[in-house]
Backbone:
C-alpha cells in the first residue's frame, strides 16, 4: 500500500485532536499538510456529553450537535470544516504500530503514514473488570463508557430494559453521572463502590455527604465499602445479578462499570520517555523525541503552579494542551518561542440539577462552607483547601458563572489565610473580600 505523507499528523481523534486542528487553522495550515487519524468513526467531539446529555430520556444530545469546539463556546467543527480546509480525517483507522525513529505509523489495515511532526493524542481507555478476571464479567449488558459506540450500546439497553434494574460499579464522576442519568430514565438504580465515600480522589467526606444524601433522596441505593466480585447471567448470557464481597447480591438487568481509565501509551513503549504513567513532556508538550508532541490525557507535563510533573485527565486540559502544542510547533518553525504552559487545574461535573466546579489543588486542610444539606431546596456550598497557610483549591456546588470564575481566580492567586474559622464563616464572601 502506498505511503501517505503529511507535514503534521495528530494520532487520535478526540477532544485534544479537535482543538489542535482549530489552532492549526488559526495559526495557518495549507491544504494537505495536516491529517488526523482516529480509531473512531466520527470527527472529534466533546467526550463529556456521553455520560450526560447523550443518555437523557428526552431529546438526547446527538452528533453532529456536540462536535468540538462547542464545549468551550467555540465554532462547531463539522466533518465539512476539515474537508474545506484540506485537513484529512482518517476515521475508523486504528494505528497498531508506531516507529518514532523512522517517523512512520502503520494502521491495522496496513496503511503507512509518514509525518514530519507528530502529536500524540490517544487519550485513555477504560479499565475493564475482565482485565482482572472478575468472574462472569464478560456477560452481556455489562457496559463501559468511553466513546460514542459505547454510549449507543448503553442507550439501547436503557431503552430495552424499561423500568429495569441497573447497578453502577464505581463511585467516581462517571459513576455519579451515570447513576443520575439512568435514574432519570426511570431505572431502579444501585451504586456500589469500595471507598468510604464517593469521588474520594477529590471530594472530602463533607462534600460527599451532600451528594450521597441527594442521590438517596432520589431513590438511588448506595452500597459502600464493597466491590463486585462476580456476575450471574441467564441462558442468553445476559447479566442478572452482581455478587458483592461480603456476600451481598444485587439483581441487575444492566451493569455499568466506571472504575477508572488508563492512558493509551502502549504503542510508544520504549521509544519515548515516560513519567507517572504518561508520556513525559516539557511546558510546550514536546516529548523526549524530536518532532513528537503529546497532549491531553497521555501527557505528563510540568504543572508550573505547583512545581511538579503531572498528568491530568480532564477535558479543559485536553483543549488547552492541544492549543499550546500547536502554538509551540508553529512558533518553533519561525525560530520563536511561546510562553510556558501555566495550567490551573479545572474540573467539573453535572448530574440531575446539580453542577459543581473545582479549581486548583486538593491538598492540605479543608474548610467546608455554605448549606450542604441535601434536603435544602437550593443547597449551595463549597470547600477551600489550605496548604501551608495559603488557599490552594476551591470547590463550589451551585455557583453562578461569576462565582465560578471568582473561585478560579482565588485558586490561581493562592492568597494567605490568617484565620481558618473566619474563612469558614465568610464562605463564599471570602472571594469578594479578596
Ligand atoms: P480522547 O478524547 O479520549 O481522544 C483519544 C482519541 O484517540 C479517541 O478518538 C481514540 O479512539 C483515539 N485513539 C486511541 N488510540 C488510537 C489508535 N491506536 N489509533 C487511532 N486512534 C486512536 N472531563 C471533564 O473535565 N469533565 C467531565 O465532565 C468529563 N466527562 C467525561 C465523561 C466521559 C464519559 C468520559 C469518557 C470522559 C469525560 N471527561 C470529562 C474526560 C475527558 O473527556 C478527557 O479528559 C478528554 O476527552 C481527553 O482528551 P484526549 O483528546 O486526550 O483523549
Residues:
Amino acid at each position: 500500500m502506498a505511503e501517505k505523507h503529511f507535514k503534521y499528523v495528530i494520532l487520535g481523534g478526540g477532544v485534544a485532536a479537535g482543538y489542535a486542528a482549530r489552532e492549526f487553522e488559526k495559526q495557518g495550515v495549507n491544504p494537505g499538510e495536516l491529517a488526523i487519524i482516529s480509531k473512531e468513526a466520527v470527527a472529534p467531539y466533546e467526550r463529556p456529553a456521553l455520560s450526560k446529555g447523550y443518555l437523557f430520556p428526552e431529546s438526547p444530545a446527538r452528533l453532529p450537535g456536540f462536535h468540538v469546539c462547542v464545549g468551550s463556546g467555540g465554532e462547531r467543527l463539522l466533518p465539512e470544516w476539515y474537508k474545506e480546509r484540506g485537513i484529512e480525517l482518517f476515521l475508523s483507522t486504528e494505528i497498531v504500530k508506531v516507529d518514532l525513529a523512522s517517523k512512520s505509523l502503520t494502521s491495522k489495515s496496513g496503511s503507512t503514514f509518514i509525518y514530519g511532526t507528530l502529536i500524540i493524542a490517544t487519550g485513555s481507555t477504560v479499565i475493564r473488570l475482565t482485565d482482572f478476571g472478575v468472574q462472569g464479567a464478560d456477560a452481556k449488558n455489562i457496559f463501559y463508557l468511553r466513546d460514542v459506540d459505547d454510549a449507543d450500546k448503553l442507550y439501547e439497553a436503557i431503552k430495552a430494559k424499561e423500568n429495569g434494574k441497573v447497578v453502577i460499579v464505581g463511585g467516581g464522576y462517571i459513576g455519579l453521572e451515570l447513576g443520575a442519568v439512568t435514574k432519570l430514565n426511570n431505572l431502579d438504580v444501585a451504586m456500589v463502590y469500595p471507598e468510604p465515600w464517593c469521588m474520594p480522589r477529590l471530594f472530602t467526606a463533607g462534600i460527599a455527604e451532600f451528594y450521597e444524601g441527594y442521590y438517596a433522596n432520589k431513590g438511588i441505593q448506595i452500597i459502600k465499602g464493597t466491590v463486585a466480585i462476580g456476575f450471574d447471567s441467564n441462558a442468553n448470557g445476559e447479566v442478572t445479578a452482581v455478587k458483592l464481597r461480603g456476600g451481598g447480591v444485587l439483581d441487575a438487568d444492566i451493569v455499568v462499570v466506571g472504575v477508572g481509565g488508563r492512558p493509551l501509551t502502549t504503542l510508544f513503549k520504549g521509544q519515548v520517555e515516560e513519567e507517572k504513567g504518561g508520556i513525559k513532556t516539557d511546558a510546550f508538550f514536546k516529548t523526549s523525541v524530536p518532532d513528537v508532541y503529546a497532549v491531553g490525557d497521555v501527557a505528563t507535563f510540568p504543572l508550573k503552579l505547583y512545581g511538579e510533573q503531572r498528568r491530568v485527565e480532564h477535558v479543559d486540559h485536553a483543549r488547552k494542551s492541544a492549543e499550546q502544542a500547536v502554538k509551540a510547533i508553529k512558533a518553533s518553525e519561525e525560530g520563536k518561542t511561546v510562553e510556558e504552559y501555566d495550567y490551573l487545574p479545572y474540573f467539573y461535573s453535572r448530574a440531575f440539577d446539580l453542577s459543581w466546579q473545582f479549581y486548583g489543588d486538593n491538598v492540605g486542610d479543608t474548610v467546608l462552607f455554605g448549606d450542604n444539606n441535601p434536603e435544602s431546596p437550593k443547597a449551595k456550598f463549597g470547600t477551600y483547601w489550605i496548604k501551608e497557610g495559603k488557599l490552594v483549591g476551591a470547590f463550589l456546588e451551585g455557583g453562578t458563572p461569576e462565582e465560578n470564575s471568582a473561585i478560579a481566580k482565588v485558586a490561581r492567586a493562592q492568597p494567605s489565610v490568617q484565620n481558618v474559622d473566619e474563612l469558614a464563616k465568610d464562605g463564599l464572601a471570602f472571594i469578594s473580600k479578596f
About this structure: The mean pLDDT is 97. The longest helix spans residues 315-333.
